[in-house]
Design goal:
The complex is a heterodimer.
Chain A (H helix, E strand, L loop, with lengths): L3 H8 L12 H4 L2 E6 L4 E6 L8 H15 L4 E6 L12 H10 L1 E2 L8 H5 L15 E5 L7 E6 L5 E5 L3
Parallel strand pairs in A: 2-3, 4-7
Antiparallel strand pairs in A: 1-2, 5-6, 6-7
Chain B lengths: L1 H23 L8 H29 L5 H6 L10 H4 L5 H22 L5 H29 L3 H14 L11 H8 L10 H14 L22 H15 L6
Helix pairs in contact in B: 1-2, 1-8, 2-6, 5-6, 5-7, 5-9
The chains are: A alpha/beta, B mainly alpha.
Chain lengths: 162, 250
């Protein structure tokens, strides 16, 4: 009989399709796993962004992984509530993002600065300078904003707080 | 109540899909790269919301239709999108002012809908309101920049506002569907949102030196499936491929 930990460690092998350094478990999109025998399993996932084009890929990857590991029927439920938040990213995942060149979310969504739109200064993931500026609220994927570092002059992605 | 919920969800889904379709016309044509990306990202968020809403509408209807059937195989008279969303993009200033008027409404609307007794609508709304916070920040900051930019940017923004303004009032219209669903705790009473929207928009316009046109006639009709000529052209473009190849998969 599989255990819940086993299933989670299997799912941890699946990388985020757009940011392959973190797994879909670290990203926080896997909300629940239910199974009563070793044949049928139900996985509940939530989208990061409403229009995230990677969701379909994640569904396919989860299904494939579980079918390869002995399950015969895999049901995937998509839920919107509670809505995904960057607060669910683990500290370890944030560190991995930074090493990959993406500045992790600097604050929690409950911070006042998030609500008022006056974001804290973002640290450049390359040279660690805080002399950075926002180029655009919208970046290469739905979850990122585009920043530029005034010290090393490199542009970088910021995983925005949502 | 099932018919009303279907109609209500369809209305919200159609409004999202048509706006997203309009915004995505800018893909590859934005004034510069970052803005091109920004508007494409915003369109994508709104498409995602539209897909979720149409999926739920199809499920509510219970006749075996899917969200794709609803999006691609209905004609203009069966669409309930707000008229403001089908208006042509015009120049970038007009697109931005239209977006600002809609974002201001949408943020208040989805924040309220997140409290709905219908769990699916509440879930979709809770997700959307976070995204709209970013959209609104984007459109509001551009209205401010265009309004306080050059004479040219100001004139274009004012012209865009004059053209789009008569379509804004319809966002607050309600009918018997709303009345029933408000009683059930499902729908949002739009009359409660109006005063704050007017206040926020008048502050935004004042900051950008804009003047809202006075005494204009409020365009209406979408709640009954009545549209201007523009919707048919959008649908023709959006639906031609699935209608030509209805069994195609991609």
């Amino acid at each position: 009989m599989q255990t819940k930990e086993n299933i989670y460690s299997l799912l941890s092998e699946i990388p985020d399709p757009e940011i392959p350094v973190i797994s879909i478990v670290e990203l926080g999109v896997i909300r629940d796993v239910k199974f009563s025998d070793n044949k049928t399993i139900e996985v509940t996932i939530t989208p990061t962004y409403s229009g995230c084009p990677a969701m379909k890929q994640m569904e396919d990857d989860v299904r494939k992984k579980l079918l390869e590991n002995g399950f015969e029927t895999v049901k995937i439920n998509l839920v919107y509530n509670p809505a995904w938040t960057t607060d669910w990213l683990s500290e370890e995942a944030k560190l991995k993002l930074q090493k990959y060149g993406i500045a992790p979310p600097e604050e929690s969504t409950s911070d006042k600065s998030f609500l008022t739109g006056k974001t804290k200064s973002i640290t450049c993931p390359r040279c660690k300078s805080t002399k950075t500026r926002l180029v655009s609220q919208f970046g290469s994927t739905a979850c990122k904003a585009l920043y530029k570092c005034d010290d090393c002059l490199e542009a970088f992605d910021y995983f925005k707080c949502i | 109540m099932k018919d009303e919920l279907f109609n209500y969800t369809l209305r919200l889904g159609d409004t999202s899909v048509i706006l997203a379709q309009r915004l995505s016309e800018w893909t590859g044509h934005g004034p510069f790269l970052e803005e091109d990306l920004a508007l494409t990202n915003i369109a994508l968020d709104i498409f995602g919301r539209g897909k979720a809403l149409l999926e739920y509408a199809a499920k509510t209807e219970g006749k075996g239709r899917t969200e794709d059937d609803l999006a691609f195989f209905r004609n203009d008279r069966e669409y309930f999108n707000a008229l403001i969303t089908e208006q042509p993009n015009g120049d970038y200033a007009k697109t931005i002012i239209r977006q600002a008027l809609i974002d201001c409404f949408d943020l208040a609307f989805y924040t309220e809908l997140a409290k709905s007794k219908d769990e699916t609508l509440a879930g979709i709304a809770a997700k959307s309101m976070k995204e709209i916070t970013y959209h609104k920040r984007h459109s509001f900051s551009w209205v401010n920049r265009f309004g306080n930019g050059t004479e040219e940017s100001f004139n274009r923004l004012q012209k865009g506002l004059n053209e789009i303004w008569p379509y804004a009032g319809e966002l607050f219209e309600m009918n018997e569907v709303d009345a029933l669903l408000i009683k059930e705790g499902v729908a949002v009473d739009l009359s409660t949102l109006k005063a704050n929207w007017e206040k926020e928009i008048s502050q935004l316009l004042a900051k950008a030196n804009l003047v809202a046109p006075e005494g204009t006639y409020v365009q209406t009709g979408s709640r009954k499936g009545l549209h201007g000529e523009h919707l048919s052209y959008i649908l023709a473009e959006m639906q031609s491929l699935p209608r030509m190849h209805p069994t195609a998969k991609w």
